[in-house]
């Protein structure tokens, strides 16, 4: 049943209508003043307040908390044995194996599995599952790709609570330089970094001596903290045993660590038998035991060590290029190079800009220094042999990087342009023979490909705002680490075009190296010939050359000064005389005899004074001055005859 009621009244009749009218104001409440409240009244200065009709907005920042990751190891032991058998006892395990091998079920199972295994082995021999069918297309894509690099990780000091992306935090407040980098030899996810302050007398009392091993997959904290007795300047992984590292300290000591035994050094060399200056280079040698290494320092010594007995060096070499073996004449080593394919040879870069090539197996110490290269104006910060052509090596120093050949001693075969900032480190690519890397003091990483460009780098990347101090490339050639002066280590991934061997690259690089080496040999022969001619000419002059060589430099300087002032004074007197004659010739009743000066005019700017400086003030004074000058100047016979005729 539906109930419907219809209203038929008008809308104006609903509710009470409002009625508005005009009327005068009326006082509803009047509160008179209370005199008793006057004592509580406090005078105030007028206060202006403003109100803005806008909504209040507050800014908030939210950052997610980093996941704390901790690495833990699990020790797997041999299992599956019955409880009554001890796996450590050889006799019990052999007896149990013989018992099992006699079981028929064991024999049937092995026969069944052997058939399946045989089928899989034959299948693998018939088909290469790793064969690349489209290698040529990939190479074409690589060639078209422009060179580039991107930052994948930053290992920096702790500057704020929220630090840089994927940053490894060094808990030390005092900034130290990342002096050396070393990649783990077996895996590419660990990096050992040596930290020290190399500035003179800048070490503070609270400065830490610690260096770190970073795990690139765990960005929260170092995997291991190395605690040396002095800050580490160099640090290297042992290529044969990845658990062992050797380091050179700032005070000249050598130390080695075993990561399985913690962060304290296993053994440290004695101070008396160590280097006297910071150890800038420490390299492992290719030996059967894998325990031998050698080091170089700015004290002018190269020392060989065996970590099984690190208390004293096994061998030493003084870097005296005069081959006298005197330590006071030795050149300070700042870089060290060793190529495993040439086990007896090594090279040392010195503070004086000279590269010393050495041979360890020479009979006498003077013969160990085989040759020298005058390479740079300043210290040689980096030396590296080309991994494809060991006779070609790279040196980095002053404002240039230079490529040398062992066959040319006097000059490099190739070199870069002079940069505006100092070069600090460099290395070759491990996969491309024509590519090398350099770092600069303005924080720039340069990638050079001399088959593509010779005058400018193929890629220049601004890594950071502080100077870069160290450089290290992974063995796969794709990731490079750059250490800075303030302790930041930046990891860069290089584009595939710079880390993939190009077509015919080895052939082209070989041709370029041979051509440039041949050109330098021709130039060296020409210079040698010119020097011989000059020497023969000087010997033919005889005693004149000897007297000239024996003349005192101070006498030469005094004579040149005296001749210069004589020429200047003669020119001044000549000009004064000419001006005086011009002025006196205008005075009536006076006649003068003109003499022609044969003195050659001086070049402009050398003793040529302005006329106003030599103006004549009085005619009589000019006459007396000119007479005195003519009596002092030497006169030729022709001038005297002309005066007599006049």
Q: Predict the CATH topology of the domain at 149-158 and 173-520.
A: Methylamine Dehydrogenase, Chain H
Strand content: 15-25%
Rounded mean pLDDT is: 79
Nearest-angstrom radius of gyration?
Answer: 45 Å
CATH architecture group name of the domain at 149-158 and 173-520: 7 Propeller
Supply the helix-strand structural class. Answer: alpha+beta
| Unreliable spans | 157-170, 589-646
Assembly status: single chain
Counting H and I runs of at least 4 residues, what is the number of helices?
Answer: 9
| Extended strand count | 29
Shape label: extended
Distance between the termini: 162 Å
Task: Describe the protein's topology.
Blueprint: H1 90-101, H2 104-126, H3 135-144, E1 149-157, E2 167-170, E3 177-183, E4 190-196, E5 211-215, E6 224-226, E7 232-237, E8 244-249, E9 254-258, E10 267-268, E11 279-284, E12 292-297, E13 301-306, E14 315-318, E15 333-338, E16 345-350, E17 354-359, H4 365-368, E18 369-374, E19 380-385, E20 392-397, E21 400-405, E22 414-415, E23 423-428, E24 435-440, E25 444-449, E26 459-462, E27 468-473, E28 479-484, E29 489-494, H5 505-541, H6 543-550, H7 553-584, H8 619-632, H9 637-645
Helix pairs in contact: 7-8
């Amino acid at each position: 049943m539906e109930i419907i009621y219809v209203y038929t009244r008008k809308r104006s009749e609903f509710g009470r209508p409002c009625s508005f009218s005009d009327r005068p104001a009326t006082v509803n409440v009047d509160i008179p003043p209370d005199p008793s409240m006057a004592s509580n009244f406090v005078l105030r200065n007028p206060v202006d307040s403003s109100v803005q009709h806008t909504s209040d907005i507050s800014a908030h920042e939210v950052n997610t908390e980093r996941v704390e990751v901790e690495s833990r190891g699990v020790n797997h032991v041999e299992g599956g044995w019955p409880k009554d058998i001890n796996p450590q006892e050889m006799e019990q395990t052999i007896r149990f194996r013989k018992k099992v091998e006699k079981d028929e079920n064991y024999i049937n199972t092995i026969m069944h599995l052997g058939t399946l295994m045989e089928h899989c082995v034959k299948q693998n021999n018939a088909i290469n599952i790793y064969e690349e069918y489209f290698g040529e297309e990939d190479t074409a894509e690589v060639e078209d790709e422009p060179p580039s690099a991107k930052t994948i990780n930053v290992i920096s000091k702790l500057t704020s609570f929220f630090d840089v992306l994927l940053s490894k935090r060094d808990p030390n407040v005092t900034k130290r330089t990342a002096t050396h980098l070393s990649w783990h030899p077996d895996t590419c996810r660990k990096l050992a970094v040596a930290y020290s302050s190399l500035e003179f007398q800048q070490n503070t009392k609270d400065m830490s001596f610690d260096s770190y091993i970073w795990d690139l997959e765990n960005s929260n904290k170092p995997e291991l903290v190395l605690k040396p007795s002095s800050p580490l300047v160099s640090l290297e992984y042992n290529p044969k045993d990845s658990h062992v590292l050797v380091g050179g300290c700032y005070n000249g000591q050598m130390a080695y660590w075993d990561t399985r035994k913690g962060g304290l050094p296993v053994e440290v060399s004695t101070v008396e038998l160590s280097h006297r200056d910071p150890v800038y280079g420490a390299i492992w040698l290719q030996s059967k035991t894998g325990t031998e290494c050698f080091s170089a320092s700015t004290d002018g010594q190269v020392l060989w060590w065996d970590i099984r007995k690190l208390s004293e060096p096994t061998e030493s070499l003084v870097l005296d290029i005069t081959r006298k073996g005197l330590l006071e004449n030795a050149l300070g080593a700042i870089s060290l190079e060793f190529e495993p394919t040439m086990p007896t040879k090594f090279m040392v870069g010195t503070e004086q800009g000279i590269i010393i090539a050495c041979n360890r197996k020479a009979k006498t110490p003077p013969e160990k220094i085989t040759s020298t290269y005058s390479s740079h104006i300043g210290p040689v910060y980096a030396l590296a042999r080309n991994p494809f052509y060991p006779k070609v090596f790279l040196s980095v120093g002053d404002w240039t990087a230079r490529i040398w050949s062992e066959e040319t001693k006097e000059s490099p075969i190739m070199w870069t342009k002079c940069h505006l900032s100092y070069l600090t480190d460099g290395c070759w690519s491990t996969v491309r023979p024509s590519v090398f890397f350099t770092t600069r003091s303005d924080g720039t990483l340069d990638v050079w490909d001399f088959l593509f460009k010779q005058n400018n780098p193929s890629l220049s990347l601004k890594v950071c705002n502080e100077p870069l101090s160290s450089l290290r490339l992974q063995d796969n050639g794709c990731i490079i680490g750059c250490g800075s002066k303030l302790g930041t280590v930046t990891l860069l991934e290089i584009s595939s075009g710079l880390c993939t061997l190009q077509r015919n690259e080895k052939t082209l690089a070989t041709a370029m190296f041979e051509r440039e080496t041949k050109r330098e040999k021709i130039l060296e022969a020409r210079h040698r010939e010119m020097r011989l001619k000059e020497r023969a000419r000087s010997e033919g002059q005889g005693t004149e050359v000897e007297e000239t060589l024996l003349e005192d430099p101070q006498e030469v300087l005094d004579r040149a000064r005296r001749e210069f002032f004589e020429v200047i004074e003669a020119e001044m007197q000549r000009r004064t005389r000419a001006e005086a004659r011009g002025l006196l010739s205008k005075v009536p009743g006076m006649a003068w005899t003109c003499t022609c000066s044969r003195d050659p005019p001086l070049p402009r700017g050398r003793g040529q004074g302005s006329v106003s400086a030599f103006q004549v003030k009085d005619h009589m004074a000019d006459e007396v001055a000119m007479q005195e000058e003519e009596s002092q100047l030497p006169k030729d016979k022709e001038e005297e005859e002309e005066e007599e005729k006049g």
